[in-house]
Each structure stands twice: as structure tokens, then as C-alpha cells.
Design brief:
CATH class of chain B: Mainly Alpha
Structural class of chain B: mainly alpha
CATH superfamily of chain B: Cytochrome c oxidase-like, subunit I domain
Order of helices and strands of chain A: HHHHEEEEEEEEEEHHE
Distance between the termini of chain A: 40 Å
Number of domains of chain A: 2
Oligomer: heterodimer
Distance between the termini of chain B: 41 Å
Order of helices and strands of chain B: HHHHHHHHHHHHEEHHHHHHHHHH
CATH superfamily of the largest domain in chain A: Cupredoxins -  blue copper proteins
CATH architecture of chain B: Up-down Bundle
Chain lengths: 293, 665
């Protein structure tokens, strides 16, 4: 029985490790400047985790294989209550590894969250609602028009409550697709009309809750062109799983032309771009594979 | 031990047979600590089995409640897997059972989300919090420390009945939301916020984040009466857990028998003690949060609801609240809750590993300190559930580093378990198989905390299948393996009969393989980016490559769920037909194995409380006649322990040392 259990533990360990290393399923390719650092830290951590996991399971399997009772009444196990020196060694070693990993794991976070977006970042307001993403662009004047919850009229497509009386609002556009430039810092301001949502683009390596009552800022710089699925990652109600949009990463000049368009043409151009950009990183625009695979 | 002052309990001392005078004196001292006095065995059926104040009956009641809830929760998880794997498939039988939730046999997304919510609530509160602590803790803590009962037996009974009421309220949420008849009654409409939306209750997840959970029907289906009852149920559960925690702590501190110093307690007792402290400090916070949420829903307050919310173009009247406040309160409870679920499993595993390894626990002291370190640190890491919630990012860094450091005591425990097995003579009984399974699963589930605990990495894996896999393995499956180990181990003492070894093995193997096949692939889904709490994955192209894994997980889930019926059959069948158990079938050393009868009599030790002479895990002692020495066996060297405490040597209750014919090997 013991030998069978030992072998099973080893087999399960091998199977588990195989799932992680077979190369068929992994992080999607990254498209952001912090992507490579993220993937490196992820890979280092998975290696540490994988080695610890395998070592513990192999040890467990070995103990189970090796130390089974033979059913002999006279047999005795080793009489030992432990070993303080061993306790100190393994405590110190794990503490060192875990804390080091923990400190390393703050770098990407600090870079994204403890710094303000650089001056001159491209700004977009994100207004989430059950079960739709609205993206509010400031237009050619680069100033966002005033919004007011009392002016929200979904039926008239005023999803964000834009105040048309405000001069800054005249050239603003609101669409349900997020278009941003490549190679230029982007700053999103996230707001929610109703419940908590979460903006998630896997290739971006970024998740951020969108919390009602707060205007949360997030910034990043894209390095690859293409079109990517944008999902809601915080349970927001009945149709949460359908709260989908796209992130279109455009060359800076294409982006500039887009946002200069008058309201009437803006939506049409977005629709056109969705057709031009098949899902994924645009072929030929840049290399796609993650450096660390 | 101090002098006896007023030995008000004569009956225990009077029934003592053949004890030395000094023994009777100390006996009186021990019972004098019992603040409730002695209660005679009840006679009527109702007092004996229903409204019982006997901790053993209450323990079994808790255990049965948890088994019921576990099967309901498991049934829900299978339904979820069916929906995720074959979206849009018509399950005719589902329409019969849930005409509103699955019209035409196809589950609606809101029905799916209510399954998510109810599965989580059912499992976390009524299984993982109930069985390991309320069940085994209740039954065995008093016996293992050598007490006649809990410190407050009536309070103990109340804790169980309040828990049961909590469960009934939770189940009633199914009916107010799932049935148009119940859901449309005046009471439901006027006082509970309206129901009948075809769900099984709320759809906000077991974490119930506001404002989704705070606004009532305007936020969508399942947010009416079902949500009200769900919060009420949790609040009731909090009260029950508080009462239980008080009882555990008092009993353990005040009612230990002669010679049972803290450092001679079995590790199970340490785990129940630590868990009770966590429950005492964590549940009041959730209770307060739940009451505030109810006020937001029904009294027009705005603790968790900010101003300017718009639903269907209508601006809501609430203003000034914070959705993040709820998250802080919830996770201040929620993280310690993880340890409330897993610590008793750790205790049981240590206890059972040592027993069947026939070897003392490796590093007993380190185990105790590690357990306390986990409990303490567990109160300072709740923010790792909230890295991306919008709270101050600098706070996240502090929470993150503390989170990684909690891995250290967890690793110490793992090393010590391996150390216990090293050089052992392992008897592969069913409880031992599950205890070994616990270690394997605890490592597999716990180790990925190193990934999730890093703020940077959380940027991608938060709220996805990676975290789902992590916590299901560690606080779900590992904890449940701890429970199975406990059931198979203690069943002979609880029911006086052995569970079938053969059926037990038949239960273990598919379950152990099954849970690996369910939860390891879920990590991979998380790495690809699969978000949790999605009613369907059909909307997203990037999830398509995962289809084969989704199918694999579902098949594994169905097989594993089916295997649990082997357990259920074995459990029920063995109560009536199992082989009669001897007093100490496993040749274990602790006090539950020295009771005069099996199951133990009403007052556990037949009026003669045992005296303890040594630590709990004295296996393989050189020169001892057997390979185990009971805690109650006096030292051959006469008088070193008890005499030092000024009591002289009493006649310890001799272990009815079994002769090992019951199912080892």
C-alpha cells in the first residue's frame, strides 16, 4: 500500500509539473512595456514554486515508499522528538527565499503604481456600467467635458452623462472600444456608474478594479500593435461574463488622426479599425514570443 | 495545581474506585474547575439526542450538519461544471427541479452565479468552519484534555442550534428566489426585498461585494429577498461561532485534568484552541459588517454605497459610503477564516501522522509555535485580497511582504510532517492515507501563495482560475482531507464500530487522484487568463485553447463527486453494521483512547478523571513493553512528574490497549 501511494504521489507530481512545462498553455504574449519584467518575475517565481513543490512531494513519496511497517509486532520506529538545529536551518532558509521573492515581487508594482503617469500621457476616461464599457475621449482640445450622473440617458447614447452645455464637451467622443497609441504613455481614469467592475486585458498584464465613487488612475505604455479582448474581471451581476470590449493598440499617427475626427465619424472609424485589426498582435509589426519561454 | 477550595461535586469522587486518598483529593480539585457542575446522563430521547448538552452528541450533530451541507455544496459544484463544459445544453431533469433557474433545461447565467454564491457560502461556513471545529473539536477537545464536558454545556447546545438556524435561513433563500409562489408573498415583497427571480439566492459571490449586494432588486436578479436572507444567515452563523469559540477557549484553559500541562496537549487541542481565538476575533467583524450591509439594504443607510450611482438612468438616493470599506471588513474576517478552516486539519493530520507513523511528532514545540505564528500573521495579511481594489498601493506592498512571510511557518509545519514520517514504521490505514494526502495537498495548494502574494504578479492572476485553484486546494480540499482523516480515525470512538477499511481505500484513491485532476489544471487556466465567476467562457477567443482542460476538470469532478457516495455509504452502514471497535483500536496514546467504554460514557471517564504523566505522542519509546505509551501510564521512575506538582502518584486509568487486530497494515 505504501509503495503504491508513494508512486502515486510521484506520478501526480510529474503530471502536475508537465502541465506547467508542456508549452501548450501559458501567459498570452505581452504588449506592454512592463510585460517582460512581469513575465521574468512570474517565471522566477514559478521555478521556485515548482522546485519546492517537487522537492516536498518527492520527499513525501519517498518517506511513504521507504518507511512502511512490515507488520512485525516487535518493530520500532526511530524514537526522536525533533532536531532544533534542523528547525533553525529550514526556517532560516525558507524565510530567506520567501522574503527575497516577496521583495522582488514589488518591482513591477512599484513602477506602475508608485509613479505618476508621465506628463503628456494620452488620457482616456473609462466609465463602466452593467454590462458595458464606455470610453470617453477628450477630443482635439484634450480637455474632458463635464459629466453629471443626472444627465445619463442610455437610450440617447449619453452613457456617461456628458454635459453638452460645457464647451469642453463639444468635441468629446464616447465609444465602447478602447483605442490607444503604441509607444506613448497612456493614463486611464476608471469610474463606475453602478457596481464594482474590473478592467482586464490579459496581454496588457494589468488588472484594475473600477470602483463606484472613486476615480482610479492607471498608466502603462504599449509596445505592440494589435487588437485584444478586454474583459470584466470583477463579478458585476447577471451578464458579467458578457461584459466584453476590445483594446486596439494603434500606431501613434493613426491614433492622432482618429481622435481628431468629429463625433459623427469617430464611431465609423473605430468599426473600420476593428475590421482592419484581426485579434492578437499585428503580424509583422513586432516579434510576438515572450523572451523567457 | 492549586488546592481544591469547594469540591462541590461529590458524585465523581464517590464513584471513584480504588484510588489513593491523594488521588481523590486531586480529583476533587479537577472537578472543582468545572464551573457548570456535573450533569447526570439524560434519559429521554429528546434530551439525549436532540436538545442534548453532551458535547459528544453536539459534536456529532455538527458533523452531520456539515456532511449534509457538503453534499449540497458538492451537488452545486457539479451543476456549475456541467454548465461551463456544455453551455446551452438542455438538461431536461434540471427544468423539472429548477423550472425558473433552468427554463427549457438550460441554466441561466444568474442561476449559475447563484450556484457560485451558495456553493461558496455553504462550503466555507457550514462545512469548513463547522465540521473540523464544531464537530471534532466539540467531541474530542474535552476528552483529550481530560474534562467531563465543555465549560458551558448549555451554551454549547445553543451554538449548534443557532448554526442550524443559520443553515435553514440560508436554505430558505433558495425558496424565496427559486419559487414564484414563495417569492411573491407579501412578506417577501415587503420585508425582504422581493424574490422569485429564478436563482438559488443571491448572485454576488460568497464575498458579497457591495454595491452589487447592497442595493436590492435594482442591481439585478438575485439581489432581493435571497440576498437579505443570505446576509442574515451569515450574521446568525457569526453569533454561533462566537459562542462556540468562547466555550472552546474556556474549556481548554480551565478544565484540563491533572498533569495535562499545555505542552502535553495533543496538537489537535492546540489547533482547536488557536482556531477558537481566531474565530473570537474575526467573526465579530463580519457580524458588524453584515449588520451594516443589512442597514444599507433596508434602512436607507449608505455605509458601503457611494453617491451618484446610476441604474437605468435613475440616480440612486444613497451617498457617502465606501465599497472598499466592506472589503476591508470582510477580508479582516475572511483571511483568518482560511486558517479557521485549515488549522484543525493541520492538528488532526499531525495527530494521525504520528499515530500511524508509530513515531513522536517531529518538533512538537515548533509545531505549536508555527501554528500560533500562522494565526497571528493571519490577521495582518487580509489586504492581499485587495491589491487591485483601488486601495493605496503602498499598503499593498506591506501586506504583500507579510503575506510571503506567512509561508515560513507553513513550511515549518510541512518539514515537521516529513520529519515525523522519516524513520517511521507507517501503518497505512485509511485515516493515515488521508493524512498523507493532506500533506501532499497542503503543499500543492499552499505553495502557490508565493505567486499570488506578490503585488506585481497579482496584476495578472488576480480574480482568475489561478487563485480559484489555490484556495480550493488548500482551504477546501486539504481541509476536507483533514476531515476525512478525522472521521476515519475517530469513528470507532464516536460510534463504537470500525468503518470498512476496504470501502475507505476505495474512497481514498479516486478522491486523491480526482482532486489533483480537478485543481492542478485550474492553475493553468489562470495562467492563460481565465477569469473566475464567469457563467460561460464562450464569449472570449483567448479562452478557446483551454476547452480540453475544462472538459478534463469536469470529468474529474464528476468522478470525484461520485466517489464521495462510497464514503457516505460506508459512514451510514458502519454506524449500524461495522465491526465492533475495541477501546483503542489504533494503539494510540491520547486520552480519548482511555475512556472506560466506547463510545465514552456521558461524563467521558466514568467519574474518574485520568491523570496525565507524559506528552501526547510517545511512540517507539526504547525499552517500553509496547511501541506506544499512553499519556496515562505512570512513569516507571516513580513520581517525577505528578509528585513535583505535589499530588503524589495516582492510579492512571490504564489504556485498554488494543491488540492491533483492527485494520492496521
Amino acid at each position: 500500500m505504501g509503495r503504491a501511494l508513494g508512486v502515486l504521489i510521484w506520478l501526480l507530481t510529474i503530471g502536475s509539473v508537465w502541465l506547467f512545462v508542456n508549452g501548450r498553455w501559458w501567459l498570452p504574449p505581452y504588449i506592454s512595456e512592463h510585460g517582460p519584467a512581469y513575465d521574468r518575475q512570474f517565471m522566477i517565481t514559478i521555478i521556485v514554486v515548482g522546485l519546492s513543490f517537487a522537492a516536498a512531494q518527492i520527499g513525501l513519496g519517498w518517506a511513504v515508499w521507504r518507511y512502511g511497517s512490515r507488520g512485525d509486532r516487535g518493530e520500532r520506529a526511530v524514537y526522536s522528538h525533533g532536531n532544533n538545529r534542523l528547525e533553525i536551518i529550514w526556517t532560516a532558509v525558507t524565510a530567506l527565499i520567501f522574503i527575497t521573492l516577496g521583495l522582488m515581487g514589488q518591482r513591477v508594482w512599484a513602477q506602475l503604481h508608485l509613479n505618476e503617469a508621465p506628463a503628456g500621457s494620452t488620457k482616456v476616461h473609462v466609465v463602466a456600467q452593467q454590462f458595458q464599457w464606455n470610453f470617453h475621449y477628450p477630443g482635439a482640445d484634450k480637455n474632458f467635458g463635464r459629466t453629471n450622473p443626472n444627465l445619463v440617458k442610455d437610450a440617447e447614447l449619453n452613457f456617461v452623462g456628458l454635459d453638452e452645455q460645457d464647451a469642453n464637451a463639444k468635441d468629446d467622443q464616447v465609444v465602447t472600444t478602447l483605442a490607444v497609441p503604441v509607444g506613448r504613455p497612456v493614463e486611464l481614469t476608471l469610474e463606475s456608474k453602478d457596481v464594482t467592475h474590473d478592467l482586464f486585458v490579459p496581454e496588457l498584464r494589468y488588472k484594475q478594479d473600477v470602483v463606484p465613487g472613486m476615480a482610479i488612475k492607471m498608466h502603462f505604455t504599449l509596445t505592440k500593435e494589435g487588437r485584444f479582448e478586454l474583459a470584466c474581471a470583477e463579478l458585476c451581476g447577471q451578464l458579467h461574463y458578457k461584459m466584453k470590449s476590445y483594446l486596439i493598440a494603434l500606431p501613434a499617427n493613426v491614433y492622432d488622426e482618429l481622435v481628431a475626427l468629429p463625433q459623427a465619424q469617430f464611431q465609423g472609424r473605430i468599426t473600420q479599425l476593428i475590421k482592419e485589426y484581426p485579434l492578437g498582435i499585428k503580424q509583422g509589426a513586432a516579434t510576438t514570443t515572450a523572451a523567457l519561454r | 495545581m492549586e488546592e481544591a477550595t469547594t469540591p462541590f461535586e461529590p458524585s465523581a469522587a464517590a464513584t471513584e474506585v480504588g484510588a489513593a486518598g491523594t488521588d481523590a483529593h486531586a480529583e476533587a480539585a479537577a472537578t472543582a474547575h468545572a464551573p457548570h457542575g456535573h450533569h447526570g446522563p439524560p434519559t429521554g430521547f429528546i434530551r439525549k439526542y436532540i436538545f442534548s448538552i453532551d458535547h459528544k452528541v453536539i459534536g456529532i450533530q455538527y458533523l452531520l450538519l456539515a456532511i449534509f451541507a457538503a453534499f449540497v455544496g458538492m451537488f452545486m459544484s457539479v451543476l456549475m461544471r456541467l454548465n461551463l463544459t456544455w453551455p446551452g445544453h438542455k438538461w431536461t431533469i434540471l427544468e423539472t427541479i429548477f423550472p425558473l433557474g433552468a427554463p427549457g433545461g438550460v441554466m441561466t447565467p444568474e442561476f449559475y452565479l447563484s450556484l457560485v454564491t451558495m456553493h461558496g457560502t455553504m462550503m466555507v461556513f457550514f462545512v469548513l468552519t463547522t465540521a473540523p471545529q464544531g464537530g471534532f473539536g466539540n467531541y474530542f477537545l474535552p476528552i483529550q484534555v481530560g474534562a467531563e464536558d465543555m465549560a458551558f454545556p448549555v451554551l454549547n447546545m445553543l451554538s449548534f442550534w443557532v448554526t442550524l438556524i443559520g443553515l435553514l435561513v440560508l436554505i430558505s433563500a433558495i425558496f424565496v428566489e427559486g419559487s414564484t409562489i414563495v417569492g411573491n408573498t407579501d412578506f417577501v415583497n415587503n420585508f425582504l426585498g422581493g424574490g422569485g427571480t429564478g436563482t438559488l439566492g443571491p448572485i454576488g459571490g460568497w464575498t458579497g461585494y457591495p454595491p452589487l449586494s447592497a442595493l436590492g432588486k435594482v442591481a439585478g436578479p438575485g439581489q432581493g429577498a435571497g440576498a437579505t436572507l443570505w446576509i442574515t444567515s451569515i450574521a446568525i452563523f457569526c453569533i454561533a461561532s462566537l459562542l462556540g469559540a468562547l466555550n472552546f477557549i474556556t474549556t481548554l484553559l480551565n478544565m484540563r485534568t491533572r498533569g495535562m500541562s499545555l505542552m502535553r496537549m495533543p496538537l489537535t487541542c492546540w489547533s482547536w484552541f488557536t482556531t477558537a481565538i481566531l474565530a473570537l476575533l474575526a467573526f465579530p467583524v463580519l457580524l458588524a459588517a453584515g449588520v451594516l450591509l443589512l442597514l444599507d439594504r433596508h434602512a436607507g443607510t449608505s455605509f458601503f454605497i457611494p453617491g451618484g450611482l446610476v441604474f437605468n438612468d435613475v440616480v440612486q438616493a444613497h451617498k457617502g459610503g465606501s465599497p472598499i470599506l466592506w472589503q476591508h471588513l470582510f477580508w479582516f474576517f475572511g483571511h483568518p477564516e482560511v486558517y479557521i478552516a485549515i488549522l484543525p486539519g493541520m492538528g488532526a493530520t499531525s495527530h494521525i501522522l504520528s499515530t500511524f507513523a508509530r513515531k513522536p511528532v517531529f518538533g512538537y514545540r515548533a509545531m505549536v509555535f508555527a501554528m500560533f505564528a500562522i494565526g497571528l500573521l493571519g490577521f495582518f495579511v487580509w489586504g492581499h485580497h485587495m491589491f487591485i481594489s483601488g486601495m493605496d498601493p503602498r499598503t499593498s506592498i506591506a501586506f504583500s511582504v507579510l503575506t510571503l512571510s506567512i509561508g515560513v511557518p507553513s513550511a515549518i509545519k510541512t518539514f515537521n510532517w516529513l520529519g515525523t514520517l522519516w524513520g517511521a514504521k507507517i501503518r497505512f490505514t485509511v485515516p493515515m492515507m488521508f493524512a498523507i494526502g493532506f500533506v501532499s495537498l497542503f503543499v500543492a495548494g499552499g505553495i502557490t501563495g508565493l505567486v499570488l502574494g506578490q503585488t506585481s504578479l497579482d496584476l495578472f492572476i488576480h480574480d482568475g482560475y489561478f487563485v480559484l485553484a489555490h484556495f480550493h486546494l488548500v482551504m477546501g480540499v486539504a481541509a476536507i482531507f483533514g476531515m476525512f482523516a478525522g472521521v476515519y480515525f475517530w469513528f470507532p470512538k464516536m460510534f463504537g464500530r470500525m468503518m470498512s477499511e476496504r470501502l475507505g481505500q476505495l474512497h481514498f484513491w479516486p478522491t486523491f487522484i480526482g482532486v489533483y485532476c480537478i485543481f492542478v489544471p485550474m492553475h493553468i487556466m489562470g495562467i492563460v487568463g481565465m477569469p473566475r465567476r464567469y457563467a460561460s467562457f464562450q464569449e472570449y477567443d483567448f479562452l478557446r485553447p483551454l476547452d480540453p482542460l475544462v472538459l478534463l476538470v469536469t470529468i474529474a469532478a464528476i468522478v470525484t463527486a461520485a466517489a464521495q457516495f462510497i464514503f457516505l455509504f460506508n459512514f451510514i452502514w458502519s454506524i449500524f453494521k461495522g465491526k465492533r471497535a475495541s477501546g483503542n483500536p489504533w494503539e494510540a496514546t491520547t486520552l480519548e483512547w482511555v475512556t472506560p467504554t466506547t463510545p465514552p460514557p456521558h461524563d467521558n471517564f466514568g467519574g474518574h478523571l485520568p491523570t496525565v504523566y507524559r506528552g501526547p505522542y510517545e511512540f517507539a519509546v526504547p525499552d517500553a513493553p509496547e511501541d506506544y505509551v499512553m499519556q496515562t501510564t505512570p512513569d516507571a521512575g516513580e513520581g517525577n512528574v505528578a509528585a513535583a506538582a505535589g499530588q503524589g502518584i495516582g492510579q492512571g486509568v490504564q489504556g485498554s490497549s488494543g491488540n492491533g487486530h483492527n485494520g492496521q497494515h
